[in-house]
Amino acid sequence: MNDDVRNIVLGLVAAGISAALGWIARTYLWNRKLRRKQAFFGLPENAESLLVVNRDPATAEPAVHRFDVFALLELSALIKDCGAHIQVVTQDAAHQGFGERTEFCVGGPGSNRRMVAHMAAMLPGVRVNVDPEPGPDRGAFRIGADLYRMEPGVTEYVLLARLTAGERRETRPVFLFCGQRAITNQAATRYLARNHERLARKYGSGSFVLLLKVVNSQAYGPDVVELVADVTKPAQSPLPAPETAETPPKALKGPKKSHRAD
After folding, report:
1. CA 239 vs CA 134, 161, 212, 221: distances in Å
2. For the chain, what is the mean pLDDT?
3. What SS3 string covers 75-117?
4. In the chain, fewer beta carbons within 10 Å around the N or the C end?
5. CA triple 73-74-75, angle to 5 deg
6. Residue 205: partners with Cβ closer than 8 Å, 6 or more residues away
7. How far is CA 69 from the centre of its chain?
8. What is the pLDDT of residue 15?
9. Where is the composition biased (Basic residues) (predicted)?
10. What's this model's pTM, rounded to 2 decimal places?
11. Is 209 within 8 Å of 231 (Cβ atoms)?
12. What is the rounded average pLDDT of the residues 40-50?
C-alpha cells in the first residue's frame, strides 16, 4: 500500500469516526432535551394524560370555541412529542382527582367547571368575575389585592399555571390555561409551547402561576404575549379580608327632660 492509498483510507476512517461521534453527540443531546421536556410536563414515554375541554358560553348547545380548539391542537402536539397518550374529556365529565396523570385544563371558570374546582383547591387568592352582564369588571381578574380588567381586543389577560399537589416525586402536574377570552387560552398554550425550556430551567418541577397579557388580539391574534408578573405567591395565598369601615359608637342619650309648664 503506497502513501496515497494509505492517506485516503485514513481520511475515510477519520471521517467515519467523526460522523459517528457527531451522531452519538446529537442523539445524546436530543435524548437529554426530550427527557427534560418529559420531566417538565410529567409525561414519560407512554404515559397517560388528560385534556379537559371547556364549552363555549356564548352558545346554548354544547360546543367548543374555535380558538379553544386551536389551543387543544397545540397541546396535543406537545403531548405527542413526549411520546404520551391523550384522553379528551369535557369539563362536566372529568370526575376524578389530580396527581395521577398530567392534566391540561383549558378555559376560565365561566366555561369550565373543572377549572372552578382547581382554582378553589389550589388558587385561593384568585377571583374571576363571571357576571354575564356588561360592565367594566366583566371577566376581570382579582389576584391578591390587584385587579386586572380587560379591554376586549386590545388588552386581555390569562393565567398560565403549573401546579402539583403534595411532595411525591411521581405526582403529575396540572396545567391551567385560564383566560378572559378564548383567544387568550390559545395565547397561553402557544406561550407554553415556545417557552417551556426556559420555564423548566427556572422552575424545575415546582409550581408556578404566571399572569400574561395578550396585546391587540384583534390585529395580532394570539401571537403577541407579554409576561406581566409571576403571581405564584398571591395566587396561592388566601385573599385578604375586605376592610370594613369602623362605625363610631353611638352617643349615649340621657333621660328626656320634661318641659312641662308650671
Report:
1. 25, 18, 20, 33
2. 83
3. HHHHHHHCCCEEEEEECCCCCCCCCCCEEEEECCCCCCHHHHH
4. C
5. 90
6. 39, 40, 42, 164, 173
7. 16
8. 73
9. 253-262
10. 0.81
11. yes
12. 92
CA 70 → CA 109, 182, 186, 244, distances in Å? Answer: 19, 10, 6, 45
- The 3-class SS string of the chain reads CCHHHHHHHHHHHHHHHHHHHHHHHHHHHHHHHHHHHHHHHCCCCCCEEEEEECCCCCCCCCCCCHHHHHHHHHHHHHHHHCCCEEEEEECCCCCCCCCCCEEEEECCCCCCHHHHHHHHHHCCCEEECCCCCCCCCCCCEEECCEEECCECCCEEEEEEEEECCCCCCCCCCEEEEEECCHHHHHHHHHHHHHHHHHHHHHHCCCCEEEEEEEECHHHHCCCCEEEEEECHHHHHCCCCCCCCCCCCCCCCCCCCCCCCCC
Banded model confidence at residue 250, pLDDT cuts 50, 70, 90: very low
* Burial bucket for residue 58 (CB in 10 Å: 0-12, 13-18, 19+): exposed
Rounded distance, CA 95 to CA 192, Å? 26
Of 40, 69, 58, 41, the C-alpha closest to 152 is 58
Q: Which three cell numbers stand for residue 168?
A: 411525591
137 has pLDDT over 80: yes
Residue 131, beta-bridge partner list: none
Contacts of 59 (CB under 8 A, 6+ apart): none
Phi, psi torsion values for 194, nearest 5 degrees: -80, -25
Going from the C-alpha of 227 to that of each of 59, 104, 213, 261, the distances in angstroms are 31, 20, 6, 80
Cell output for 152: 376586549
